[in-house]
Amino acid sequence: MEIHNHNLNIHYSLPDEIWNEISNLYSQMPGWINYIDGIPYWFGTEETEKFICASVEPSGLQFYAKMLNEEWESWFNLFKEKATDLLGFEVGEPEDGFKFIF
Q1: Organism's domain of life (predicted)?
Q2: Of 6, 13, 40, whose CA–CA distance to 25 is shortest?
């Protein structure tokens, strides 16, 4: 298992209706558990061997995960594809040149 920590160009200042749609997207992703203390989780929690969680940060939507690299890449790419379709702009990591849309 490997640790993964990535930000996406989904800015915290987007309107609530967009965040509601993103929340709906969370529940459609493989491994969805639910919110625990306000934090979305997939597959497990920090106490389990495999998990993904997300948080909204000033640097963008942040994912923190512990899972096999190949599985993470597949899951994360699927999330970016679905978020791009949902939001109408290309979703990716700011450090890779993806811009924030406000």
Answers
A1: Bacteria
A2: 40
